[in-house]
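Hey team,

Filing this mostly as a record. A colleague (T.K.) asked me to run one chain through the structure pipeline before their review meeting, and I want the input and output archived in the tracker in case anyone asks later how it was produced. No errors, nothing strange. Just documentation.

Input sequence:
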Amino acid sequence: MFFYVFIVLIAGICFYLSSKHTEYPLNMLQLSEYKNSEYADWIKLNSDKVNRLVYKENQEQKTPLVWTDRVKRLKKKHDLVNIIFIVLGLGFSYLVYILTYSKLSTLSVFIVFSICIYFFQYRILLLSNKLALKKELEINHGFYTQAQAKIKDYKENHGLKVLGITGSFGKTSVKFISNTVLAEALRVKNTPSSYNTPMGLSKVINNELREDAEVFIAELGAYKPGEIEEVARLVQPNIGIITAIGPTHMQIYKTIENIMKTKYELIEALPDDGVAIFNYDNQYVKKLSDKTVRLKKINYGIENIEKLDVYAKDINVTTSGSSFTLGIKGLGEIACKTILLGKHNISNLLASASAAYSLGMSLEEISRGVEKVEAVEHRLQLIDPKTGILVIDDAYNSNPVGFRAALDVLAEFKEQRKFIITPGMVELGALEKEENYKIGKEIAKVCDYVFLVGINRTKPIYEGLKDAGYDMDKVYQFVNLKAATDELAKINRPNDILLFENDLPDNYSEE
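Output structure:
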């Protein structure tokens, strides 16, 4: 009897430990957007974390697990899979007992089996997620079709207009800017944060969109061809903006041409009376505009204004914001000012002004809206903590164009010691090392001190700094952001300015 009680006790302990220590693996899977391929890649890159019998408790996570309904369902499925493995272990152990009549052998086999179940929790979660996928797709499809029908109804019966925004970068900034500008004359429903997937948008549409809204703003994100089309079928845009195209997520897209094709899915989804808005300063977006003949087009930009429908001139960029003259063909020109930092943010404002123009707003309304725009969180956000040290928070994401724009803003602060804290750029595919090496050389022209977060990942930046003749005694390398900020506190003094450029999520951590 004692033998059987002991076996059951071990089984119970195995299940308890396996169930208890799933929060961190679930978090990594959630950060991988429930994609087994990306989660499996993370496992390969973090074998030191996953190949262990002792799990780290209470890890400080920048992006903690969000207990969504999907996560709760997945947790139940994972517990069930663990129970199945434990039962299989019991069955195999029983087979050993039948063959050997040895309780010691049977017990030893089950203990080893239980340890393996605990040891391989990260990998077992791959199986759990795969088994849960069919049910999740059914649930998602239901939410999707419900939201799709609601948008169609509001467009037909309440005159709703839908503004779709996509691009390799800038789309979230343009979304929030557009919300402020359009709200000067229209009732607008925006989507929070970086909600740009079918499920994120479906949730907002089903739960928050009201029939009195005149404009719904939808950011359309994608990681592969066909995903923009899927989101566009959901939101059914009347107006489409392509903000910019550049080398992001290159490990998936492989070529710029694939990115261009994917972003253009938004324009292809517009109805015949729709409006296509293009950033004509971007060489890749310009090509997409030039090939568009079916739709009314609005080209915006700062360069070659004679070819533009919406433009900015007389630009004055300072450390506290910018002023410029906004021009719209057919309406005229008007003076504008903004607290947003950097010349590239004027481009984002022009995208929103183009949308406002297409919706019938006046120059005066657009100008008032531009002046009310506030800095978007973590996107070149100037923060004054009242310590004498200024912070430029550009931590949301980073790409070659945005990184250089941030350095341009930092360079405007002539009198301060300039620090940069960065893990570099990721998701650039085969271009990643080259682009980080180049940005190292650009950093050398602007910054007085360089704090690199992630010793292995930032090697190309380090080499770029070195080859640019930078004083390497002013380059610091750290395993994580906390170590970097601890060292910053020792060095910083009043009148310094700190640029936080990019902040990678936990699934990129080198710890």
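Quick notes for T.K.: The chain has a mean pLDDT of 87. The chain has 20 helices and 15 strands.
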